[in-house]
Predict the 3D structure of the following.
Amino acid sequence: QVQLVESGGGSVQAGGSLRLSCELSGDTFSNYCMGWYRQAPGKEREGVATVDTDDSTTYADSVKGRFTISQDNAKNTLYLQMNSLKTEDTAVYYCAAWLWVGYCPFGIPNYWGQGTQVTVS
């Protein structure tokens, strides 16, 4: 029932910026904790950032200070603002959602988006 659809991926030069979006449909956005993962060819999928229902955030060390995760409940949308992009940021980026159960049960997500390609050259 719940669907996540990412958008905003594309190609950008190193040092540039890109903003990814993820729209949730099929349920109330505020019922979910949200996050972003990424996967480069031949590598495991890795967590990038999360945001709790109280807007508290976490970031992977590799993106801290460069990426910002945020959410807009009115638009049912999650964002990832990516600045100072590096070639090693090249990957397919996936939106993820966890059903809030009094806390955010971060682990294997309940739902995944289809992914959006980010290429930094």
Remarks:
- The longest strand covers residues 91-99.
- The chain has a mean pLDDT of 97.
- Residues 66 and 83 are 5 Å apart (CA to CA).
- The two ends are 37 Å apart (CA to CA).
